[in-house]
Amino acid sequence: QIFLGALSFVYFAKALSGSYLKSTITQIERRFDIPSSLVGVIDGSFEIGNLLIIILVSYFGAKLHRPRIIGAGCLIMSAGTFLIAMPQFFMGRYRYERFPSTINSTVSLSPCLQDKSQTPLSALEKSQAKINAGCEKEAGSSMWIYVLLGNLLRGIGETPIQPLGIAYIDDHAVEENAALYIGCVQTVAIIGPIFGFLLGSLCAKLYVDIGFVDLDSVPISPKDAQWVGAWWLGYLIAGLISILAGIPFWFLPRHLPSPEGRKDSSSSSEHSRFITEDSKDQGTSSWQQAKLAEMAKGKSLEFSCRLINFLPSLKNLFGNPVYILYLCASIIQFNSLIGMVTYKPKYIEQQYGQTSSKTNFVIGLINIPAVAFGIFSGGLIMKRFGVGVVGAAKLSLGSSFFGYLLLLSLFAMGCGNSEVAGLTVSYHGADPVSDHEQALFSECNSGCSCSRNDWDPICGDNGVTYVSPCLAGCRASNGTGKNTVFFNCSCVGTFESSQSSSAVVGPCQKGNECPKMFLYFLVISVITSYTLSVGGTPGYILLLRCIKPHLKSFALGIHTLAIRVLAGIPAPVYFGVAIDTACLKWGSKRCGGRGACRLYDSSALRYVYLGLTFVLGTVSIFFSVAVLWVLRKKSSPQDETLSANGERGACGTKSRKDNFVNSDQLIQSTYWPEKETRL
């Protein structure tokens, strides 16, 4: 029970830190001034770290002290989490693009610098000196690499938790209770992402340099595209939780006494069969030594047999058309789902003008519970109606079909572009412009010395956002920080709907229809998440029932490995590259070069994000149809009525059934060590 509680807490800790990383994607992008494609590489580094040692841990971990290996993994995971947060303490204060008068400047400057001589020389020199100092510091560092290495280390630390923890439970629990215990662990793991996104929501409300700067002097708000929350704070909390989760494992025994009601079957612990416990009689040492020598020979022979049987097993597995088709469907669908989940916070922020805090709160409190309920519903349907293998394939296919059909409706639930002069509308209020670089300049700001690289948005009284006070042609300003007001803005006055020529700090809000569209999006998104999740359990049962029993662990290992290599790593990268193509205005680094995107084309972002998700999902449906077709072709009418209680008649021909029987007999009469973790 202690081990079960400790393992459940570890599952909670790793799920919390993983979901918190998803919630800080946009914060990391802005803090380090990097594009979405590079953020995708950082996100995929977790899977890379996991894959580096998964085979070594799974195979050799069973021979060592498994609880302590899990405890060591928790320490490594916490070290990686702390490493992700470390750049915040070495990069200095966060610098955002702002006109000097909004940063408590004692010098009254005109945003539209018609002549640089109007600015005191000392002010220009100080400003240039600060830029040069920041450039020197920035040029010598790429701090995002530490985030990537930290996530890589987090993946390495997470590796032993699942294979060794689940195998430990299965080895020492009563057979009837093992499934219940594993289900409890998985249930607690679902709670972790809820708290992870809620923690992300809380930290996104706080300014990145909280505790180091006067918050009243910060001119940007959480709705600004340059706002960065206290992303690092959540990683410190997650790292501390990981340390606490690992402590109990250092005090747990290597083996537990076998339960009285447990039979000496193939599911028994390998240690209870092959390792002599200290509590046994010490007077039989000679007999034990002979037994150990015999065991060593058996292990050597077993290892040789494994090498000989590996290729035939692999050929047998990949010769199963149902397994291959389902593997292809899973890989493509997980590409769709991983890309969608990774950039969902970013999509909501950019499409509906929501803050990072509200976005994470909505995902954590609404979307994730819907996914958990969908997974539970799928298993409940399988049990309640006695769904067989063909029925599981139908349920999985129907779940995907209706889920992606609902996703299709989200194309109509988008918001229009924000009205940004020179980017989405002209300075005279006309339709969208074509050449965004040249359209930033107009007759109304031709007398100003402006840069097209700046992003210091202000909202004019006409409801139009201007890229900077200079490009708005503002001649005067009053106030400091968030209370700064700009006057005599020539471009604001020339707009066709303009009645005055003043502006305030920050971008204008999106259109009035956006809040309503956001509500519709939430409703459809929750239903879609639930519908897609219903097919998770039936798909898993389909995978287990359509392979030979002695290849089950191997097949699950290949399935997990393929999804991580072909979906978990590449999906965030190419989704990020595709999303970058929808950018209208890129930020600029202090030393030159392109930074993070400040403004997206809403329509292009919607079609890229939802379109890529829908296309991948549609391709996976075709493979699911092929799976169902092969199953129906090979099954008899009686097979379709079989319940999912271990019968496998629908998965092969009569000869395959005979092989299954032979395999079952082999399993009952023969035992091989490390059966749970031999991949």
TrEMBL record:
Topology of this chain in the membrane: Multi-pass membrane protein
Domain Kazal-like: from-to ranges: 438-493
GO CC terms in record: basolateral plasma membrane
PROSITE patterns membership: KAZAL_2, MFS
Catalytic reaction annotation: L-thyroxine sulfate(out) = L-thyroxine sulfate(in); L-thyroxine(out) = L-thyroxine(in); 3,3',5'-triiodo-L-thyronine(out) = 3,3',5'-triiodo-L-thyronine(in)
Compositional bias per record (Basic and acidic residues), positions renumbered to this chain: 260-281
Entries under PANTHER family matching the protein: ORGANIC ANION TRANSPORTER (PTHR11388), SOLUTE CARRIER ORGANIC ANION TRANSPORTER FAMILY MEMBER 1C1 (PTHR11388:SF99)
Species, as recorded: Spizella passerina (Chipping sparrow)
Transmembrane segments: 41-62, 69-90, 178-208, 229-251, 323-341, 361-381, 387-408, 518-541, 561-586, 607-631
UniProt xrefs under Pfam families: Kazal_2 (PF07648), OATP (PF03137)
GO biological process: monoatomic ion transport; sodium-independent organic anion transport
GO terms of molecular function: bile acid transmembrane transporter activity; sodium-independent organic anion transmembrane transporter activity
Protein name (Swiss-Prot/TrEMBL): Solute carrier organic anion transporter family member
Compartments, as annotated in UniProt: Cell membrane
Residues annotated as domain Major facilitator superfamily (MFS) profile: 3-636
Region entry Disordered, spans: 260-282
